[in-house]
Amino acid sequence: MPEQLAVEQLAIVDWVKGLAALPERGFTLEAVQDYILHHSVRPETLEKYLFFSKGNYTRNLIFKNAVFECMTICWEVGQHSRIHNHRDQNCWMSAPIGRLKVQNFRVEQKDATCGTCKIVPTEIYEMDGAHPAYVNPLEPVHQVLNLPEFNQRAVSIHVYSKPFDTCEVYTREKGTYGDVPLHYTSEYGKLHPDEKLL
């Protein structure tokens, strides 16, 4: 049997304060993962940061400084991210509402001059409130999916260090990849003026 962790449940405001209290040099993969394993977010405190759209998953900024950013990502049933990386930055994830599947990929070939690549699926795992995860720096290309058979909305919390505003997106069928700009659906609980939720 896996060891049962003593988990402290916090409001999102206090959870983020705890992260922000970590010194910059101490904001390591292991230290943040340890914090997330021992501190969970009370789902009812996320309400201000929950925006759903039938068109696509939404990215909702909770906190941002020079060291990290924290956001909720809201997933309707059947929604999924594109296959992507995180610009060599660390990423930690948990899903306090619902559950999600994470599929990792190994990049076997990549040609920057042509924008072509070959990626191969590797590890696959599920994530929920009791099972947070982090992106493996050695295999950072992945996809997050709220599978139709899960039959419920999901909300994941993502911590990125350091913040970044573009990522590489991979199209496995075509064997291509390219840069994609990132944007927020909402910031600090307020819907972005350009956003129209379906």
Task: Please provide a written account of the structure.
This protein is mainly β. It has a single domain, classed as Jelly Rolls (Sandwich), CATH 2.60.120. 10% of the residues lie in helices and 43% in strands. It is built from 2 helices and 15 strands. The chain has helices at residues 12-20, 29-38; strands spanning 8-10, 39-41, 58-64, 69-75, 83-84, 90-97, 100-111, 116-127, 133-134, 141-145, 154-161, 166-171, 176-181, 186-187, 190-191. The strands form 4 sheets. It has a 7-stranded mixed sheet, covered by helices on one side. Strands 5-12-13 form a 3-stranded antiparallel sheet, with no helix packed on it. It has a 3-stranded antiparallel sheet with strand order 8-7-10, with no helix packed on it. Strand 14 and strand 15 form a beta hairpin. The longest helix has 10 residues, at 29-38. The chain is globular, with a radius of gyration of 17 Å. The mean pLDDT is 94.
